[in-house]
Specification:
globular, 2 strands, 1 helix, about 100 residues, AF2331-like fold, about 15% helix
Length: about 100
């Protein structure tokens, strides 16, 4: 699993990433679901596998009747789109991709 984070992305990049996920399988469709349930935010750990990374743990709930079959969610692609105040992001990461 990649730990690459892209900052200051534009809507076209989000659209391209979503399109890439949707095209992975011809019979796929995209779903937008809000983050719900438990959300926790953790400061970077000083040691261990999460050393140096802010962590946001969250859940996405999808209604039981919306998914057919028990293994339907084992084959999926996902990414999170977050909004952060520019003042909270290191300057060298802003406009890096433009």
């Amino acid at each position: 699993m990649s730990k690459t984070v892209l900052f200051d992305v534009d809507k076209d990049m989000v659209s391209n990433l979503a399109g890439h996920i949707a095209q992975k399988n011809e019979d796929s469709l995209l779903v937008i679901a809000p983050f719900t349930g438990n959300v926790s935010i953790h400061a970077p750990a000083k040691k261990g596998k999460n050393k140096g990374y802010h962590r946001i743990k969250l859940e996405v709930w999808i209604e039981e009747g919306a998914i057919i079959g028990e293994s339907a969610l084992t084959d999926f692609g996902a990414f999170a789109v977050l909004r952060l105040p520019k003042a909270r992001v290191q300057d060298h990461l802003i406009n890096k991709l433009k």
